[in-house]
Inverse folding.
């Protein structure tokens, strides 16, 4: 530029022409980046991570346009900008990488409205780059007068619907149990002669949902002779809860913790279990209520029950199970990890289980003669659960899980006999009757003998695991405001009823109400996790009449209240290792600087404490112990530290510690372990792992053990610690974590 300015006016004229050409070229280039949408023309385009495509549609003030974006292999976000370039909406529904995003624009001013389309990516998420494509088109374009008429019709339709809901609701006076059933009497006609009542929930962490389910159970047991309660929880460990419910033996809080899922480890569910026990303890109640799980999310107990039975009736068949490498790992939840098992090994394991089931069937007469039919049925059930557990963890196994849960509920009904009537507790996502969900499989089995209650709420709080930046931030409460007024949840809220039931089967077949319910409406669909940065993605457009028979509604909710063992928090991230010789801690407590869930460990009878019992050096060490006897659940004890990996990136590290034990017998072992993680989800975050699962520690004298591993440049944090499986005691001391030469 300075060369041009140093010459005369002719060169200045040339410079002006160059600048004009440059600006014209860039304006032309910029304009090609914005494509115009017109009715009747679909545009298909590839999309990859990091790309951003812009479209525009010209609207006059008062006009309305509905644009659809069909996602094909990639999850997209659509930002909507007004003619001034201000963002007025962001669309990112729960459709994932397949499905349609719907963009609705009401033009407040005339001009070009823009849609910016780009891949969904949470800041800090380290998932691999993805590619896909999409199709975008104008689905509907209305003039100002047409849209005004549409709005007036919609308002009339919604007001008519709200009035119908008010007139046909079953108002409930509250959600808490043991306050009588006068307000619930109309539910008898709604439920009729059904033998299965399925109760959903719009979140896995809402106090009022759990309380209302308790109240529904109390009503159905007391007033309608239901005698079985079944929950979306591991089936084998569920029998421990049932023992307490029927006999009063055991600890209900520990038994509840022993079905593992934090969502149920709450004050509300524990109180319901205690109510079941109080009901059964009353001699006037001759028909007792039983507790079942019906899920297959854990395999250890199922395998142990099956092996124990086979060791009694046929040691040769039991030996075949013992010889399978994968099954030997499943016996120890500390050692087992699906990520470590190949498809071929998984297939062989399933064949072994299938062969075992054939042996159980072929030799049923002989086995039953030795143990009785009840024990044989229970053993065969656990063989099925073991197979279901493995199959449901194979990629694309979600439908297997739901079909298996339905099959297990069917087993319960057959096992309990023709007079059995069951209350089923699960998420809305499982009880609904859409294809490949549990509700659909049960509907095919039982037809009108099942009534499905979906749950909805207008606003309020719930607890969930906060998923953000590609990883978990622990369990905490969240609060959400009402959805837009045309949503299902907001329309139910507009009735002014704090608690109510609505029988969707009584909806009129024609008219405004039928038209309103014929269109998909947004309702919240929140499971065990939540990301407040993407809150809108937890509301789904659903055809509610195709999912449920009845809706139970709570206007405003609060978060479920976890029991002490049901809390979940993330370890504190340290900048450097702390208290590695345990001298900075008082005896009898968890050592300072280390993390362990005291109450959760106590539920499984583990004790982690600073000890003065013969330390390797100094005056203190750490001890993990568990007395011999009956325990709830199948788990292990951990003590850990989490370090910021920044100063270790690109280096090799060595974890070293002294260990001594008082451990005997199979499955009673001590371990050191070391992990290196990046931000991400599940196994995608793991960069290095060595938990010594193939070299358990049983030394009775102090000995040093070590683990060496690489810290990637991607690493975010380093976890290291100790573990105890089974029963007995182990002492650990003199830890070090050092950078070593390659």
């Amino acid at each position: 530029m300075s060369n041009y300015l140093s010459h005369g006016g002719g060169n200045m004229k040339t410079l002006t022409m160059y600048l004009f050409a440059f600006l014209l070229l860039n304006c032309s280039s910029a304009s090609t980046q914005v494509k115009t949408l017109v009715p009747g023309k679909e545009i298909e385009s590839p999309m990859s991570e990091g790309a951003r495509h812009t479209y525009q549609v010209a609207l006059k003030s008062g006009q309305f346009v509905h644009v659809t974006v069909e996602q094909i292999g990639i999850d997209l976000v659509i930002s909507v900008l007004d003619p001034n370039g201000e963002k007025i909406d962001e669309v990112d529904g729960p459709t994932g990488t397949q499905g349609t995003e719907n963009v609705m624009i009401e033009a407040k001013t005339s001009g070009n409205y823009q849609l910016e389309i780009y891949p969904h990516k949470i800041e800090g998420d380290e998932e691999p780059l993805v590619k896909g494509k999409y199709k975008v088109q104008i689905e509907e374009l209305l003039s100002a007068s047409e849209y005004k008429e549409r709005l007036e019709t919609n308002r009339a339709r919604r007001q008519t619907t709200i009035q119908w809901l008010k007139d046909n609701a079953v108002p409930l006076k509250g959600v808490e149990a043991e306050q009588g059933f006068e307000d619930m009497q109309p539910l008898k006609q709604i439920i009729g002669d059904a033998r299965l009542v399925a109760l959903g929930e719009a979140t896995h962490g809402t106090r009022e949902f759990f309380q209302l389910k308790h109240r529904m159970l109390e009503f159905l047991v007391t007033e309608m002779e239901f005698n079985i309660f079944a929950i979306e929880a591991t089936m084998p460990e569920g029998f421990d809860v049932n023992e307490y419910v029927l006999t009063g033996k055991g600890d209900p809080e520990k038994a509840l913790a022993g079905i593992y899922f934090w969502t149920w480890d709450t004050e509300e569910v524990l109180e319901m279990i205690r109510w079941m026990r109080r009901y059964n303890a009353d001699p006037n109640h001759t028909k007792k209520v039983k507790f079942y799980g019906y899920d297959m999310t854990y395999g250890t107990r199922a395998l142990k029950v099956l092996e124990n039975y086979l060791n009694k009736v046929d040691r040769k068949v039991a030996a075949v199970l013992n010889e399978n490498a994968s099954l030997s790992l499943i016996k120890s939840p500390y050692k087992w990890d699906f990520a470590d098992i190949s498809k071929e090994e998984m297939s062989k394991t399933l064949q072994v289980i299938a062969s075992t089931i054939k042996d159980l069937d072929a030799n049923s007469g002989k086995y039953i003669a030795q143990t009785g039919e009840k024990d044989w049925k229970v053993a065969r059930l656990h063989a099925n659960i073991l197979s279901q557990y493995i199959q449901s963890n194979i990629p694309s196994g979600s439908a297997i899980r739901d079909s298996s849960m339905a099959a297990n509920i069917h087993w319960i009904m057959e096992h309990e006999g023709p007079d059995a009537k069951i209350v089923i507790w699960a998420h809305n996502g499982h009880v609904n009757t859409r294809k490949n969900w549990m509700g659909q499989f049960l509907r095919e089995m039982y037809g009108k003998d099942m009534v499905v209650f979906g749950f909805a709420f207008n606003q309020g709080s719930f607890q969930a695991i906060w998923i953000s930046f590609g990883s978990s931030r622990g369990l905490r409460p969240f609060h959400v405001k009402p959805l837009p007024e045309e949503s299902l949840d907001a329309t139910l809220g507009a009735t002014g009823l704090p608690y109510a039931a609505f029988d969707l089967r009584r909806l009129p077949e024609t008219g405004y109400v039928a038209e309103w319910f014929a269109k998909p409406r947004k309702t919240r669909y929140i499971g065990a996790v939540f990301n407040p940065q993407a809150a809108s993605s937890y509301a789904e457009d659903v055809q509610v009449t195709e999912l449920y028979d009845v809706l139970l509604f709570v206007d405003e909710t609060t978060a479920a209240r976890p029991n002490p063992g049901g809390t979940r928090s993330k370890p504190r991230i340290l900048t450097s290792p702390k208290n590695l010789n345990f001298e900075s801690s008082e005896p009898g407590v968890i050592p300072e600087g280390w993390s362990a869930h005291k109450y959760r460990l106590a539920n499984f009878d583990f004790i982690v404490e600073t000890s003065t019992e013969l330390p390797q050096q100094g005056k203190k060490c750490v001890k993990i112990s568990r007395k011999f006897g009956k325990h709830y659940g199948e788990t292990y004890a951990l003590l850990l530290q989490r370090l910021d990996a920044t100063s270790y990136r690109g280096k090799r590290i060595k974890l070293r510690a002294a260990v001594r034990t008082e451990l005997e017998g199979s499955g009673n072992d001590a371990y050191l372990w070391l992990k290196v993680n990046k931000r991400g989800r599940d196994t995608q975050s793991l960069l290095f792992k060595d938990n010594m699962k193939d070299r358990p520690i049983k030394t009775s004298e102090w000995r040093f053990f070590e683990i060496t591993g690489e810290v990637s440049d991607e690493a975010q944090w380093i976890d290291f610690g100790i573990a105890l499986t089974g029963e007995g005691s182990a002492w650990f001391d003199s830890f070090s974590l050092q950078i070593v030469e390659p």
User: Anything to note?
Assistant: Confidence is low (pLDDT under 50) at residues 1-32, 123-128. Residues 144-168 form the longest helix (25 residues). Residues 195 and 419 are 9 Å apart (CA to CA). The chain has five domains: 2-31, 34-142, 170-232+421-564, 300-392, 571-740.
